[in-house]
Amino acid sequence: MSDLDTLKQTLLADVAAAGDEAAIEAVRVAALGKKGSVSELLKTLGTMTPEERQTRGAAINALKNELTEAIAARKAELRDAAIAARLVAETVDVSLPVRSSPAERGRIHPISQIVDEITAIFADMGFSIAEGPDIETDYYNFTALNFPEGHPAREMHDTFFFPPDANGERKVLRTHTSPVQVRTMEAQKPPIRIIIPGKTYRQDSDATHSPMFHQVEGLVVDKTANVANMRWVLEEFCKAFFEVDSVTMRFRPSFFPFTEPSFEVDIQCDRSSGPIVKFGEGTDWMEILGCGMVHPNVLRAGGLDPDEYQGFAWGMGLDRIAMLKYGMPDLRDFFNADVRWMNHYGFRPLDVPTLFGGLSA
């Protein structure tokens, strides 16, 4: 047996023994690479006589061609085997339900949705958003809003007080968003048209009350603001928010330290359908918010002259109007982090409320 026959048998055995594409590539490089065994033989062709080229040269080229074909065939076999192994390992059970995308599974909390709805409504009326700190001083939370010393709201049974600081001052978790009204009046000159959504805190907890809850307030200050303007703003808001063509409202005299005159506002409704209250129809009445003309003392606290400027303000509980609009029976569920509740009452992330597209579409 010649040396070429021996090399051929050895190389073909190596090709057949290769177990994966990396192994067959190693065989190819060892035989046909720049310094491979067959390549070294091909380099000797230049030193051969014409007679040797016709015999030995032809045998070397035949070995190269046969080995190239064997390597290509083995590569194809290994590639097909690898694909078959992947198909076995990566099977897909087509009977399984398709997983929904994060955008489909996720839900927006009703409070976030309500804030977006209210923002869309009042932005269309020319209002802007104002914010303030959750931890307030006694001055901004009470004194600047015309709460007299000894008022029940200042007592421990209603307000969360912090321990006294080095100066003996006790800060509080704000009991309403009204401090932002004073801070806004201090920071900008009229005309002012703002709404103030945010968290508030009071020591109360039951099916319709929570120690932490959400409010939204509105404030308008200019030289001609009046009760008629306020009534129009509130009527337009209620029609847009509850998505009805008309609402019937009544204003009852009330008392709030920071407004004078003060009113509680009722809306005519139908309560005959259980937890879902229908507005714009029926013969029942439901109190929805409080409002009034800004008290002169509050204007003075904000650095404005009440002889030159006047304004009106209103406030309502976001959690409560969410319960009314969407038929949620218990306020505590808003804060229980129950995924089942969120899946039922939550909103899709891409359902952005707009006046032209529908607030709760």
List the helices and strands and how they pair.
Blueprint (H helix, E strand, L loop, with lengths): L2 H15 L3 H12 L4 H6 L7 H40 L12 H4 L4 H15 L3 E2 L5 E2 L1 H4 L30 E2 L5 H9 L4 E10 L10 E11 L4 H16 L6 E8 L2 E12 L7 E2 L4 E11 L1 H6 L8 E8 H9 L12 H7 L16
Could you describe the 3D structure shown?
- The protein has 361 residues and is of the alpha+beta class.
- It has helices at residues 3-17, 21-32, 37-42, 50-89, 102-105, 110-124, 138-141, 179-187, 227-242, 296-301, 318-326, 339-345; strands at residues 128-129, 135-136, 172-173, 192-201, 212-222, 249-256, 259-270, 278-279, 284-294, 310-317.
- The strands form two sheets. Strands 1, 4, 5, 6, 7, 8, 9 and 10 form an eight-stranded mixed β-sheet that branches.
- A hairpin with a 2-residue loop joins strand 6 and strand 7 (259-270).
- Helix 1 packs parallel to helix 4, helix 2 runs antiparallel to helix 4 and helix 6 packs across helix 11 (318-326).
- The longest helix is centred in the first third of the chain and has 40 residues, at 50-89.
- It is elongated, with a radius of gyration of 40 Å.
- The relative contact order is 0.11.
What would a concise description of this structure say?
The chain is 40% helix and 19% strand.
Structural class from helices and strands? alpha+beta
From N to C, what is the helix and strand string? HHHHHHEEHEHEEHEEEEHEHH
Rg of Cα set: 40 Å
Helix content: 25-40%
The overall average pLDDT, rounded, is 85
Count of discrete domains? 2
